Amino acid sequence: MSATSTIPVRVSEIEPVAESIKRVRLERPDGRPLPPFSPGAHVVVSMNDGGRIRRNPYSLMSEPDDRGYYAISVLRAEKSRGGSAFIHDVLKAGDELTISHPVNLFPADKRGRKHILIAGGIGITPFIAMMAGFARDNVPFELHYAMRSRAHGAYWRDLVASYGAHRIKPYFSAEYQVLPVATLLENQPLGTHVYVCGPDRLTDCVLDAARNTGWPAANVHTERFLAPAGGKPFDVELIRSGITVHVGEHESILEAVEAAGIDAPCLCRGGACGQCETSVIACDGQLLHHDVYLSDDEKAGGRKIMICVSRFEGTRLSLDL
Amino acid sequence: MLVEGITSRPVHGGIQVDLFARRHFFALEGEGALALLAQAPALDEAFFDRCEVLYAAADAAGRGYDEALARLKPDLFRQTPTVETLLFRLRGCLSRATMGTRLYVAGGEGFIGRCMNVAAGFGMDAGTVLTEHRGSAARRVQCVHCKGITEDVSESPFACSHCGLNLLVRDHYSKRLGAFQGVCIDAEEPVSASRTPEEVFQ
Ligand code: FES
C-alpha cells in the first residue's frame, strides 16, 4: 500500500454491540467527505499497536451513500495477533488511524433477480451495506444468518426490525437451530445469486450444496475472512531489495516486508485478491499456503506465494521482492 | 471492413453437458441437433429423464434429425414448425425452471442470439448458458440508429430492414440483446454509388 492511497480518520464512536464485537465509527478529522463505496467493499485499517503496525481488512457496513462516516465491526479474534485485541482493549473515541481507500472484492451482481445472503457470525458485516442497497433498489433478497447465540450475534434484532422476519432469518446454534443450506438452494428461480461470508466450514458447505443442486458457479459468490495465520518465525531473503527480513510468530511476510520499508503490492491482505503474488526464487523447506487465490496446482508447484497470509517452514526462503 | 479483435464477439464453447445440473433444456435449430446427438452415446437414460428438448428443423428439414432426437426419449421432446414457436416454448420451460437447470443452445448464430435474449429475460447470465454454433453464420443485427433488429444478415454492409440505412456489421455483440451491432457506413456521403457487400457470414 503506498502512502498516497491512505486516508487519515478519527474514531468518533466505539461501542460494544454483542459479545466480543465492537462497532467503530470513523470520520475524517478535517470533516471532509469520505470516498463513496459500493456495498460489499472493505478498507484496510492501519493501527499503531505499541510501535508495531497492524493492518487488517474490515468490511464497511455504513450506508454506502452517507459520505460523512464509515462504520466497521470488529470481532475479538480468539487468538488475536494484535489487531482485533488492540481495537477492543486500546482504541478509544478520539484516536486517529489511517485507512486505505475502499476496495470491493465482494460486489453484488446487479443483474440478479433475487439475492440470497448467507452469513455466519461476524460475516454479517458486508451484507449490512448490501441489504441497504437491495432495499433501496427494491430488489428481492433474503438473509440467512447463523450465530452462536442471541448474545453473540450482532445486529440481528435491528435487521429483523428494519427488513421484516420474512426476509431476515436468524439461526442460533446454542438453540440447536441449523441453517438448511441444501434445501435453501434447491428450489430457487432462475436469476438468483447466492453470497456467503463467514467461517470456512459454512463457505465450503454452501459451495458444496450449490454444486450438488446444480447451480452455475457464476451465481455463487464468496468472501472469506482470512486473518494471517501465525506460526513459527522464519527468515526471508528478498533478492531484489538485497536484504533479509525476520518474520515473527504473529506477523505475516507482508507485514515484515513493510516494516523493513519495502512497498510490496497488496490489496485485500486476506489471501483473496491476488495482488501480493510473489515468485519464489529458492525454497529449502515447505511453503504453507493459506490463501484461496492460487490454484491447487500452483500451490503444489511451489513457485509462487501469497505473502499476505502464507508462511514457510524450513531453512531458506528467497523471494523476488 | 470487419473490425477485428472486438472482445464482445461471442465464443461458442460447445454444449458439453454439465452432469451436476438437475435439469437440462436443449434448444436446437437445424444442424444444431448434431451437437446433442454426437454426445448422446455417452449419456444414460437417467440423464434423458431429466432432459427437455426443443427442436426447430429450419433448413435441415428432411434430414431425419427430429426422429433421431425423439429416439433419445427425453422427458419432453417438441419439434416446432418455426423458431418463433420454439422461443415461445422455451419461455414456458424457463418460467418454471430453477437454478439447477442448465440451458444448452445449438444452431445458427442468429438462433443462438435469440435464445440468449430469451434466457437473459429470465435473469440467466450469458456465461451460464452453453452454446454451440452449427449451420448458418448469418447474424442477428441491431441497427444502432433506429434500434430495429434484422435477422439472418449474411452480408455487410446491408440495408437496415427498418430504417433503410446502410449498416456495417461489426463484431461488437450485445449480450443483453443477443445481437451484433450494425453502424451506418456512409453517413458522410449518403447517396454514394455502389456498395458491394464485402463480408459474407454463411
Ligand atoms: S493482498 Fe490480496 S491476496 Fe495478498
From TrEMBL, chain A:
Gene3D superfamilies: 3.10.20.30, Nucleotide-binding domain of ferredoxin-NADP reductase (FNR) module, Translation factors. Its cofactor is FMN. Signal peptide: none annotated. It comes from Pseudochelatococcus lubricantis. PANTHER family: CARNITINE MONOOXYGENASE REDUCTASE SUBUNIT, NADH OXIDOREDUCTASE HCR. Residues 234-321 form the 2Fe-2S ferredoxin-type domain. CDD domains: fer2, PDR_like. This is Ferredoxin-NADP reductase. Keywords: 2Fe-2S, Flavoprotein, FMN, Iron, Iron-sulfur, Membrane, Metal-binding, Oxidoreductase, Transmembrane, Transmembrane helix. Coiled coil: none annotated. Residues 4-109 form the FAD-binding FR-type domain. The chain crosses the membrane at residues 116-135.
From TrEMBL, chain B:
Residues 5-126 form the Dimethylamine monooxygenase subunit DmmA-like N-terminal domain. Keywords: 2Fe-2S, Flavoprotein, Iron, Iron-sulfur, Metal-binding, Oxidoreductase. The keyword Chaperone does not apply. Residues 140-183 form the Dimethylamine monooxygenase subunit DmmA-like C-terminal domain. Pfam families: DmmA-like_C (PF22289), DmmA-like_N (PF22290). Transmembrane segments: none annotated. This is RNA-binding Zn-ribbon protein involved in translation (DUF1610 family). The lineage of its organism: Bacteria, Pseudomonadati, Pseudomonadota, Alphaproteobacteria, Hyphomicrobiales.
